From TrEMBL:
Residue ranges constituting the Regulator of ribonuclease activity B domain according to the UniProt record: 13-111
Superkingdom of the source species: Bacteria
Gene3D superfamilies tied to this protein: RraB-like
Protein name: Ribonuclease E inhibitor RraB
InterPro entries: RraB-like_sf, RraB_dom
């Protein structure tokens, strides 16, 4: 696992972003929360990452676009029907991040849909 990862800073950012969203919009009480992961460097075994996340209850989708404007592949790990709060988002984010870091991926944000 990447010991250099700053979980305290990641948590603080998650709480700040949630606070800003909550202040500017009427958020749903329950939502599907998506966590995004990209390769740290080089090749990554995306199926192994998906399997490890799925074992913890995440639904996983690899987004691997093709074409001229395609971005690098990334994984979306979703927890469905979650109570929407900064703490709830963080708990799911921390678990998924630890799994991803151990498999060569790094976090790249989160989002949600009602």
């Amino acid at each position: 696992m990447n010991e250099a990862h700053d979980f305290s800073a990641q948590r603080a950012e998650t709480f700040a972003v949630f606070r800003n969203l909550n202040d500017s919009a009427d958020l749903p009480e329950i939502a599907d929360v998506d966590y995004f992961f990209v390769a740290s460097e080089g090749e990554i075994d995306w199926p192994a990452l998906a399997d490890a996340l799925a074992a913890e209850g995440y639904l996983c989708e690899l987004v691997d676009e093709t074409g001229e404007d395609a971005e690098a592949p990334y994984m979306v790990a979703t927890l469905t029907e979650q109570p929407l709060s900064a703490e709830g988002i963080w708990i799911g984010e921390e678990i998924a991040t630890r799994i991803a870091l151990a498999r060569g991926a790094r976090p790249d944000g989160w989002g949600f849909s009602a």
